[in-house]
Amino acid sequence: MRLRFRRRIKALSGAWALALMMIGSAEAAVIATVDRSDIELNESFTLKITVDTAIDIEPDASALDAEFFVGTRSQLSNTTIVNGQISRSRTWTYVLMAKREGTLQIPPIIIGAEQSKPVPINVRAPSNSLPGEADIFVTTEVDHASTFVQAQLLYTIKVYRSVATRQPRLSEPDIRGVEVLIEVAGEERSYESILNGKAYNVVERVYAIFPQESGQVAIAPARFEARVLRDGRITGRKIFESEAIDVVVNPIPPPPEGFPDAVWFPAREVTLSQTWSREPDRLPAGEPITRHITVTAVGQLSTQIPVIDPEVGDTIKIYPDKPELRDTAEASGIRAVRRDQYAMIGISPGEVHLPELQLPWWNIDAGEWQLASLPGTIINILPSANAAAVPPVVTEQPALQQQLNASGNQIVQSSFWRRVSGVLAGIWLLTVVAWWWSRQPVSRAPREPAPPPIYKQQARFLKAARKAAQAGDGAGIRSALLGWGRLEWSDNAPLNIGDFANRVAMPLSTQLEHLCRADYGPSQESFDGEALAKSLRSISVVREEKEGRATDILPPLMPA
Questions:
Q1: Residue 366: strand, helix, or coil
Q2: Three-state DSSP class for 175?
Q3: pLDDT tens for residues 456-515?
Q4: Please, which of 57, 154, 305, 460 could form a disulfide with 338 given CB 3.0 to 4.6 Å?
Q5: How are beta strands 38-40 and 44-51 bridged, if at all?
Q6: Residue 16 parent element (H or E)
Q7: DSSP 541
Q8: E strand or H helix that includes residue 108
Q9: Of the candidates 145, 337, 367, the residue with the CA atom closest to the CA atom of residue 256
Q10: What pTM does this model have?
Q11: Does residue 26 register a pLDDT over 50?
Q12: What DSSP state is assigned to residue 197?
């Protein structure tokens, strides 16, 4: 009997475990993402399938075989513990290659009872125009041939290699002309591509360029250096370059109709959203409520998002707080988020209508003004719950007065009790005044303006160094570069130009050595200001390599 009972308990436990596993798998969310949605035929890309729980069920990816060649497959399990709560996820990775051109869809991937949403991709015709018959070549492209001031320009560099290389190095973009800001848009990607029947390994790097003035942006050829491995032998260092690109930067167009004071705000996509700390339909007077307004822009920096000043009227007091700014790099460029916080306090009861918020912005893809809006809100301010009640008025009863007069008793008004009543009334009045004073908002001291971002400060130092180099001012060059170095290496700033030259790559390091020899060398040679100004277009910092292992090692037990 005991053996049968134990067997039944084990069977029930197994059934409960299977049921829980099925419930967990049924509630798991399946998400499908790709590293690139715009590819060429015979070009590989990566598909990731992520489920937000740890399950043992394998995904059903058989539907991929209809439109794609499925290559390498891998999987990864992840466990995270935050504040004692354990969360698990699992990711499957597939390397795919499209079988035909056109707009294709990655079909839903089924895991248990759930499935992912279809993912659209665009497959373009393969490029057959190769720069010669080289085994290694570099291509560059921009998303717009002409742009506007402060509008994002995506600059893409691709390095194609059909042979093995050693010590590869891809230089940073060399941009001339108008002043620009450069940000890396997303992580460096690597994939396979087939051109004219030859397989290439492709490394892709994307930059977001923001011109600061109208004119022309001249992007020098991208430069790739490496040593090539052929037939078991390695060559010397070789240089491969792409074609140069010129982009016209147009001036800021006039504001749209109906918004003569609109701030210039170019982007690819803009959305407005808001949240409240609690429901605004029933707000007691004197109690605060917090309103969060978020502006999300794709293709722009968070520092360029205009400030929105909501109108609230005279019945509400508003106190803005410091905004939260965040920039994220992704495939479509920079995604910027500005989150403003406003503390609001109703003064008098009644219904308050907050007007609609509107933000004009310039669509850089469509080339026209558009309007992002947020609908209006109604706030219902209720009387304060802590308002003091007025004491009722007690009237004397004539019958009681007549009874007292009849009995011969006389009511004597005493001055002592009048004083006590007056003191109590004064204390009550002071209590009401103190309560009203405590409900008033504390005035905020004016904040000092936040310092500009480090990259803007460094851009100013670089601009000053280039001007000093063109003017042949050695002292100005040293002062500007040492200021740039204090921002870059705040914990270990360079003390002189020689120390600065040891921390940067060529050709800037070579030009700075010429400057040092011109100032302190015995021959008193002059430095080339134009060459130094050209090398100051961008600064590549040399990373310090880790110290090698100690050379004193024990001899082998069996020496040769």
A1: coil
A2: strand
A3: 777 888 888 888 888 878 888 888 888 888 888 877 788 788 788 888 877 787 778 777
A4: 305
A5: unpaired
A6: helix 2-27
A7: B
A8: none
A9: 367
A10: 0.55
A11: no
A12: T
